[in-house]
Amino acid sequence: MTEPVESFTYTAHASRVLFGAGTLSRLRDETERLGASRVLLLGRRTDRAAAVLGPLAVARFEGVAMHTPVEVTEDALSLVGEHGVDCLVSIGGGSATGLGKALAARTGLPQIAVPTTYAGSEVTPVLGETADGEKRTRRDPALLPKTVLYDVELTLGLPVGLSVTSGLNAMAHAVEALYSPEANPVVDRFAVDALTRLARALPSIAERPDDPEARSDALIGAWLAGICLGSVAMGPHHKLCHVLGGSFGLPHAETHAVLLPHVMAYRAGSAPEAMRRVAAALGATDAPAAVFDLATRLGAPGSLAELGLAEADLPVVAEQSGTPGVLEALGEAWRGDRPVAAGEKPDLSRLTEQVVASFSPASDPRVAGLLGDLVRRLHGFVADNDVTEDEWMTAIGFLTRAGQMCSPTRQEFVLLSDTLGISSAVDLLTNSRSPDTTPSAVLGPFYVDGPPAVASGANLAEGLPGVPLRADVLITDLDGRPVPDAVVDVWQSNQDGFYDVQLPDLEGPVLRARLRSDADGRLWFSSILPSEYPIPDDGPVGEMLRATGRHPYRAPHLHFMISAPGFRKLVTQLFVAGGKYLDSDAVFGVKDELIVEFPPGPDGGRTVEFTFRLGASDG
Ligand code: NAD
Fold it and tell me: Is the dihedral of CA 148, 154, 159, 160 positive or negative?
């Protein structure tokens, strides 16, 4: 069965982005590009911007504050009317950007954002504002800055502590995007790249804060992380940080830095693929522990207690965030414990290697090799799929019933191998080693050793009802020379799709025989046209087919097993062209080269002619 087709919605948020070192020098051009000439500068460090803008800078507001309090916005708003402002330029971290958005929301003025931290707000259509001790978030494309100027030079002086916490804030955007219900391949790419860049850049920045390369890496990472934040709904981590910042006044980036690994551990069990990607981006195996270790190594604050939160507030935070079952993770974050991912699996490698080593005394190294690899894969299978004891007992019960179903005329394990495509896989491998011979096909469960020997011309159907068939067979080597005296076993179903071994009332073998090729490599026989048939589905294999919505039918075919001295044995089938189920054969046995025309014959029946090419045996 094919995988369901991916389905998602992705909205790109368009801002004009200028990235580089010294891009601030283009601020005046960019302002004029927007048709504006009267700028309100927002932020604590706006001198250089004012110098670039010259007469276009008509007012400045320095009183930005974290979490965008509405009182601050109202103060700044009064400057807009006073100075006839027609453009907002924010320079600073998320707080300055937030103020620009809050003013744009109230005035409709265009904004240019010049971010100097890694918060990512400049590319999100999101604004969080605080009023009366509560932080409210709104999302509106009109909040987006028209232009973003990323100037690496402005970040060279961002203190290491702030760089680290702000970088971890950006990483949180990327992590939550990977397990967001709105995740999509575009955002996934941005998230993984953001994580890779930030995890690489932050340690370099901690060592050399003014390294432009590392700063550039981090700023691009922050931009990509911001795109993630703006594109998909955020999860428990952002909800908790929102409450901790808005209601408990905790500092924004530091709170993100402390909380991230603990929320990751809380989510790990239900988002294993996201964690695998985060871990890979960080070059680690356990994503939450890797983020915790990175933050610790870089000197980020280690606990919510350190940020001033009272332990008694934890249940309130959990409650207000609306995140079920998160209290334990919050407790760990409060204490600053190194996180252990929920659902983290025990390491099986010692056990696996012990079992593998136990095979090494085998006298045949192939036996030790095959068993060892099988055990490795089975251990990996149970670990990767978190197989429960009940599931394993179900599997053992299934195999037990398959064994009990077997008899001299019923081979449930062959059926299982066939319906899982393993027989065809082994067969394809075998064929690939002898591409010029007639392709082989699976033996199937209905071969009975030692069928009755008959001479060419015999009728295998012995008066059974069905469409008469005349088969003419030639056996050659790879150069087309006839192979005489080849032993050819033929077996097939009757017109109702049953083999003789499935019909207990029949006496002796029917529709199966052993023939020999003559001096010209030829043999011929009469029979009836084989029809499609269901493989026996009254056993465990049938249960599997029903449980997975599969039909049990095989496309109509004749079986052949051909042996001749000096040649490799060929086990194959000829499929009736135009027959049913050729493209959905229950045992995956159909090969194009083996689909053969069975044209009408003189007696109202059908005919088939086929040349089998045998390869020389190895020895
Ligand atoms: P911030 O903007 O408050 O800056 C933190 C401190 O760093 C300030 O004192 C600031 O003056 C200083 N600073 C900034 N750049 C500097 C530089 N280059 N050199 C030296 N000092 C510098 O903090 P932040 O973490 O960038 O932003 C946090 C705020 O942004 C919060 O209010 C948060 O809610 C908001 N935010 C919003 C979004 C969104 O998409 N809406 C995303 C992220 C953050």
Answer: positive
Q: How do beta strands 468-476 and 606-613 pair?
A: parallel
Give the tokens for residue 381. 């299978």
Model pLDDT for residues 155-187, shown as the tens digit of each residue: 999 999 999 999 999 999 999 999 999 999 999
Least Cα distance to 473 among 561, 411, 605, 356 occurs for 561
Q: What separation in Å is there between the alpha carbon of 166 and the centre of ligand 1?
A: 8
Q: What is the band of 1 on the pLDDT scale with cuts at 50, 70, 90?
A: very low
233 Cα to the center of ligand 1, angstroms: 21
Pocket probe for ligand 1: among 252, 258, 259, the residue whose CB has the most ligand atoms within 8 Å is 252
Residue extents of the structural domains in the chain: 16-155, 161-343, 422-613
| Nearest CA, atom 7, ligand 1 | 93
CATH number for the domain formed by residue range(s) 16-155: 3.40.50.1970
Q: How far is the CA of 491 from the centre of ligand 1 (A)?
A: 79
CATH no., domain 161-343: 1.20.1090.10
Whether 90 is in the pocket of ligand 1, judged by its Cβ within 6 Å, is: no
How does pLDDT run across 244-253, given as a tens digit for each residue? 998 899 999 9
Which atom of ligand 1 is found nearest the CA of 124? 40
Q: What is the CATH architecture assignment of 422-613?
A: Sandwich (2.60)
Query: What is the whole-number distance in angstroms between the Cα of residue 73 and the centre of ligand 1?
Result: 16
pLDDT over threshold 70, residue 3: no
**What is the Cβ-side half-sphere exposure of residue 186, based on CA atoms within 13 angstroms?**
14
